[in-house]
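Example 3.2
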Amino acid sequence: MPEKRVVPVIGSLADFESKLPGYLNSNAPLALLLDYDGTLVALANNPANTLLTANMRKLLHQLAGHPKVFLALISGRGLRDVQSCLGIQGITYAGNHGLEIESGDGTRHDYALPAELQTRYTTIVKELTEKLENNGAWVEDKKVSLTFHYRHVPADSAEHYRQAAKAIIESHGFRANQAHMAVEAKPPVNWNKGEAALLILKNQFGDDWAKNIKVIFAGDDNTDEDAMRLLQGSGISFRVSTDPNIQTYADFRLASQGVVEDLLTWISITYNQ
């Protein structure tokens, strides 16, 4: 059974080859699964204000077009939102923590929430909006999951807002997950970024995908740990964090969000030799 632990850190481009010698092979297909916020882009006060660097955008387009590289984005954002953020056609996108998946050819897999959960979700949105959407806090409604942001709330009130949002979410049977100065409400279903990652890999490469391809996953959030846990032993995953003592299911910690660019550069160099 996988367990969280403190893992080796990677802080530069040179670290990838020195700590993962020979893992990548330009002749072996690679499935590259990536989170968006906090991974491909630095976190912002408002999700609408995130911006890919020019080099990151260039690397992603290069890798998306490589015949040996399969690129997929698995984000907490709504599907159309993350698609518009990246703007790359023909790749797989998963939104709402994998509840919505659309492959490059337009094939969809949507986790259909029961009517009762949809009703409860609507009630959560209403209560959070009426009771807590003030003083800089706001609700990001993604239709099947939401994020309650309290980054702009005065520091002496932030904990109150966090606890109050968590209580409302959990009172209706939804899961309240802590994010970066935010609380995410997810439906109580057996589906997450990890399950979405496995489905994407199976659909693209078949049941024996683990024997035939290399897999890399990178994410920065607690919701990404589900993918790191399920991919342990079948691929290499990276947790983006500045905390040297963070416990994670990932194989390595990336010392900062900027090191993700080094990760993509390492992959690009390998597959374009």
